[in-house]
Amino acid sequence: MRAWAALGAGGVLYAAAVLWSVPRLPRNGVPLHFDADGTADRFGSRAEALTAQVLIGVVMLGLGVGAVCLVRWGPLTLVNVPHRSYWTTAERRPCLRRMLALDVGVLMGATLAAMALLPVATVAALGSDPVGLPPSVLWSVVGGYVLAVLLWCGWSRP
Predict the structure, then answer these.
(1) Cβ–Cβ contacts within 10 Å for residue 68, how many?
(2) Is 30 helix (H, G, I), strand (E, B) or coil?
(3) Do 125 and 34 form a contact (C-beta atoms < 8 A)?
(4) What is the DSSP letter of 133?
(5) How far is CA 76 from CA 99, 100, 112, in A?
(6) In terms of C-beta distances under 8 Å and separation of at least 24 residues, what long-range contacts does 86-95 make, across chains too?
(7) Which residues contact residue 103 at a Cβ distance below 8 angstroms, ignoring those fewer than 6 apart?
(8) Is the model's pLDDT at 158 over the cut of 70?
(9) Model-level pTM?
């Protein structure tokens, strides 16, 4: 159940960010892509931006749901775990499935939560000239996400 809560929280946060951005985006001239320096290098309409954001969110949420379902009810032969003979015994299999589902749910939920910064960054970028984000903001978000994933992976080791 905690896996679904983590995944759902990330999905709700992403959806809230997209909905928050809707009235703040202009009809045209919406940044759709940023280069490594944070400068917007592709622009489009509000409809194009929202379509992309919704599509990305739906795909990521679908991947998360599919991955949680796979580790909860799918064949464990598709999953690589250390000490396979120990963890795949009948009495340990439910625990393994719960731990894997929690890991997948948290990581996909964290990915959706980090992606919730995309619509916020798009709106924030509109207020600068040239349209873009400071590289420090862009890379601190990416670095923070990578650090969070590494910390979770280190903490959740069996």
Answers:
(1) 22
(2) strand
(3) yes
(4) -
(5) 13, 10, 26
(6) 87/158
(7) 152, 156
(8) no
(9) 0.88
